[in-house]
C-alpha cells in the first residue's frame, strides 16, 4: 500500500501540531505507523489522499450511523448553509432537534444543546452538583466522558491507549472530587456511597462502555446504579454520547429499561457535525441559566448547520427497520469472525479482543494483547479495512454497509488473523 502523500502530510503536520493531529488517537501512536489522510468518504467507504480505499468501521468514532455523505444529510447541510451559517439567535431546527430527542428518550423532558460530548458531560456534572448541593462524583475506570478536568481521572479511550490515566494540568484538589469505581462491579460503588454518605452528587457512566473497547453491562449492574443513587439522593447520569441513537432509538436506557436523571448525547445527534446535548427531568433542567442559577452557554451552540445535520440523521433513523438492519449486519460480521477471536457486541458497536476469556471488566480488557492488536490493525488496513487504531475503542456498522461489505470484511479479517499466526 502506497502512503506517499499521507507520509509527506504527516511529516508537515507533526511540525505544525502536537503529534500531527487535533485529537490524540488519530496519531496511530498505539499501533505505530502513518495515519492515512482521508480525502473523501461515501457510504461505507473512505478514500485517502493516495487513492487507497477502505471499508470504514471507524465511522468518525461513532457519529456516522448513516455512513459518509448520506444524501439527506448533505442536502440538509446545503440548504442550511445557503441560509447563513450562524446567527447567535434561536433557529427553528433547534426546536426540531429537541423534539426528536425528547420524543425518543422519555427521561429527557428538557435539554440544552452544546458543541461536543465533552461539554455535555462537563455541564451534566455541574448540573448534578448544582441540583444536589454536593461536590463528589463517581466515574468508572476505563469509561471516558471527554476531557473536562474532573473527568480525566482513570479515563478510557486515548487515556488508556496512551497510558495517561490522569492528565497533567488537572489540579489534585479538583481530581480529588472524582471517585473511581469499577465498571460492572456494584460493590465498588456501594463502598463509595458508604464511605461518603450524602456527599456524592452523582454517578456518570457509559451504560455500554465503548472507550475501553465495547463492554456491555452485566445483568443487574445498571439497575443497581439506579437503586443506590435513588436511595442516596444522588443523580444517575447516563453518558450516551456513543450509545444514544446507536444501540436503538431509545439509546441504552431504552434497551435496558433504566431511567437516568440526566443524559448526555453527542456524535449521532450531530450527523457528523459538532453537537452535544445534556438533558433530563424538567425540575433538574430548570436549574440551568437563564431559568436557574447553573451557568452554561455557547456562541455556536444550536448552530444551524450542525442541528440540520442532526435533524436529517435522526429523521432517517426513524424509518422502520433501520436498527434491525444495522444490528443484523453487525451480527453477521461478529458471527463471521467470532470463531477466530473474542468479540464483544452491543447493537451495531463492537470490539475484538485478543483475550481467550470473557471480557466484562477493565481488568479483563487489559489482559488483551494490545501489541497483537496493532499488528492486526495494520494487516486489516493493508487489506482495505479501517478499524479503530487502538484496542480500547469501538467499531461501528452503519446503514451504508452492505452484506457484500460485511462478507468481504470477514474474509479479510480471516486472512489478517492467519497472517498473525
Ligand atoms: N462521552 C463518550 C462516551 C465518548 O465516547 C466521548 C468521545 O468519544 C465523549 C464523551 C466526548 O465527546 P467529544 O469527543 O465530542 O468531546
TrEMBL record:
<dbReference type="GO" id="GO:0006779">
    <property type="term" value="P:porphyrin-containing compound biosynthetic process"/>
</dbReference>
<keyword id="KW-0413">Isomerase</keyword>
<dbReference type="InterPro" id="IPR049704">
    <property type="entry name" value="Aminotrans_3_PPA_site"/>
</dbReference>
<dbReference type="InterPro" id="IPR004639">
    <property type="entry name" value="4pyrrol_synth_GluAld_NH2Trfase"/>
</dbReference>
<dbReference type="InterPro" id="IPR015424">
    <property type="entry name" value="PyrdxlP-dep_Trfase"/>
</dbReference>
<keyword id="KW-0663">Pyridoxal phosphate</keyword>
<comment type="similarity">
    <text>Belongs to the class-III pyridoxal-phosphate-dependent aminotransferase family. HemL subfamily.</text>
</comment>
<dbReference type="GO" id="GO:0008483">
    <property type="term" value="F:transaminase activity"/>
</dbReference>
<dbReference type="InterPro" id="IPR015421">
    <property type="entry name" value="PyrdxlP-dep_Trfase_major"/>
</dbReference>
<dbReference type="GO" id="GO:0030170">
    <property type="term" value="F:pyridoxal phosphate binding"/>
</dbReference>
<dbReference type="InterPro" id="IPR015422">
    <property type="entry name" value="PyrdxlP-dep_Trfase_small"/>
</dbReference>
<keyword id="KW-0627">Porphyrin biosynthesis</keyword>
<comment type="pathway">
    <text>Porphyrin-containing compound metabolism; protoporphyrin-IX biosynthesis; 5-aminolevulinate from L-glutamyl-tRNA(Glu): step 2/2.</text>
</comment>
<dbReference type="GO" id="GO:0042286">
    <property type="term" value="F:glutamate-1-semialdehyde 2,1-aminomutase activity"/>
</dbReference>
<dbReference type="Pfam" id="PF00202">
    <property type="entry name" value="Aminotran_3"/>
</dbReference>
<protein>
    <recommendedName>
        <fullName>glutamate-1-semialdehyde 2,1-aminomutase</fullName>
        <ecNumber>5.4.3.8</ecNumber>
    </recommendedName>
</protein>
<dbReference type="InterPro" id="IPR005814">
    <property type="entry name" value="Aminotrans_3"/>
</dbReference>
